[in-house]
């Protein structure tokens, strides 16, 4: 945790979920209405097909709804893409950008991610920018170099603590059940905090830093207790309301 920083528990549904899964979103929307909502934010990013109906389901809840990607242009001839304005039009508040699956599957560069982040900001969205090293890079002790390069390349100069969240997601921890040790997460997050502080001053010192990669109810308390970890970006475990809410609930009693 970072003192004075409000944690965010975010779920990335990836390419999972049909209308049937809306019952999980409904349960999450209901489950985050307790007293913990005064201290912790909750967000679900379903596939774009469910975005509008999900925001409608969450209207009376502190649960926020976001998207998983956007184009850098506001509109135009970009078959298959959606714009940040379209996400905002569906009452989405956040968009995940530069996820490693997009960087890998679509060869998204840091520069492209930065353009998308700027588009998200222009539409009034909060961008969740993902960074993280591959297992080869980790084995070559390049983790911090990779984080520095990705942050340098994909965070625009207008980033603030309100419009930008950074998610550290080591690629080898995504969907594998393997996580870095809390000490390793602590090193990466302390490094990112220092870099952000140097570049963005007080905004950088309070920008939220999420950890992502095999976060589960069983390991969430340990990971969320690490210094400079201000929440989680959860894949698989966010698909089930009970797991998502169990992770969210670890903040009950956790203090910075
Ligand atoms: P898992 O939690 O399934 O490992 O996915 C992490 C992730 O990629 C979230 O964006």
Write up this protein.
There is one protein chain. The chain is of the alpha/beta class. It has a single domain (8-252), classed as Aldolase class I (TIM Barrel), CATH 3.20.20. Helices cover 39% and strands 15% of the residues. The protein has eleven helices and eight strands. It has an eight-stranded parallel beta barrel with strand order 1-2-3-4-5-6-7-8, surrounded by six helices. Strand 3, helix 3 (84-89) and strand 4 form a beta-alpha-beta unit. Helix 1 (22-31) runs parallel beside helix 11 (241-248) and helix 10 packs parallel to helix 11 (241-248). The radius of gyration is 17 Å and the shape is globular. The N and C termini lie close together (5 Å). 47% of the residues are buried. The mean pLDDT is 97. Bound molecules: 1,3-dihydroxyacetonephosphate. Residues 12, 99, 169, 174-175, 212-215, 233-237 line the site of 1,3-dihydroxyacetonephosphate.
How would you sum up this structure in a few lines?
The chain has 256 residues and is of the alpha/beta class.
CATH architecture: Alpha-Beta Barrel
Strand content bin: 5-15%
- Helix-strand sequence: EHEHEHEHHEHHEHHEHEH
Question: Largest sheet at a glance?
Answer: 8 strands, parallel, barrel
Instruction: List segments where confidence is low: pLDDT < 50 over at least 5 consecutive residues.
Output: none
Distance linking N and C termini: 5 Å
Query: What is Rg?
Result: 17 Å
The ligands bound in this entry are: 1,3-dihydroxyacetonephosphate
SS class: alpha/beta
Number of strands: 8
The CATH superfamily turns out to be Aldolase class I
What is the residue-averaged pLDDT? Answer: 97
* CATH top level assignment: Alpha Beta
Q: What oligomeric state do the depicted chains represent? A: single chain
Tally of alpha and pi helices: 11
- What is the molecular shape? globular
Quote the CATH topology. Answer: TIM Barrel
